[in-house]
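Hi L.,

As promised, Divergent polysaccharide deacetylase:
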Amino acid sequence: MTLSFCPGMVRAIMLGLLTLALTGCGEPDDPPAAEAAPAVTEQTVAIPDTAQSDAAYYDELRARWLELERAAQAEPEHAPAAPFQQIVEEPQPIASAPAAAATPAIGIIIDDVGHSLIRGRRLIALPAPVALAILPHTQSAQRLASEAGAAGKTVMLHQPMESGAALPIGQGGLYAEMNRAELETTLQANLNSFIPIQGLNNHMGSRLTSNREAMDWVMQVLGARGLFFIDSRTSPDTQAAFAAEAQGVRHLSRDVFLDNERTAVAIDAAFQRALELARKQGTALVIGHPYPETLDYLERRLAGLEQVEGVLVVSVEELLARKYRR
């Protein structure tokens, strides 16, 4: 007998599996308990015995988050959305162009950091000021934040926000049904969960970033703390840049996702797009993930990039300085 499933049933099954699997999303490469504890208390995450063999599986689950979120935007009565890379950007507040003599520059942010100490340390060791966007309440969050800060790397909170596909977003998530007090309490707790933090970007968030009132609340918290905001642009309807501008919060928006496809050829093509954008508009902002393929590529590519390509890799703070320099 042949069984058939409608798309809605398949989607429901996938989301159920994601919810179960992501509850144990740690990796077994963190230090033993005998090591000194960080100054800020971390949440303890139980690691299953099979975590080593499941590491690639968890990576694949994380890779599917954005894909599923994008697919949900095409449902049900609307025409299918254009491929994500071709979505026309919402109008953004126009900033001064960089000085003509300025060398083209890209900034790189790596999301989803905090589950793996080994991968986080590979990021910190990269020969360029790559920013670490760390998920709150992950087992290696404070240790990696401390080491990255000591190495002069930018540390960001990778804030989970509600997605249009109703995907699980993890502990510390912000949801559209939250009132202002609930949202602010959750966000403040996440911002206090590890130090240092210079700014914030959204993890998923196609639903929440499209909610102007919720984004106004987020920006008020960031403005009071003097933190910047990076819009990962998981939705063409995002209101984040407008809310940030209204609250006087310095902000940038993602130009290129580096590793939507986890092959060396696809990652290189995305990186080349970023270089071309930087040469054309002065700067470009790239977001990637701590996949083995991405780490391997960056370790090979970043050394001597300016000499080879004539493009600098700069910190997120330098990109902000170029945007807001008058």
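The CA atoms of residues 4 and 10 lie 10 Å apart.

Thanks again for sending the construct details.

K.
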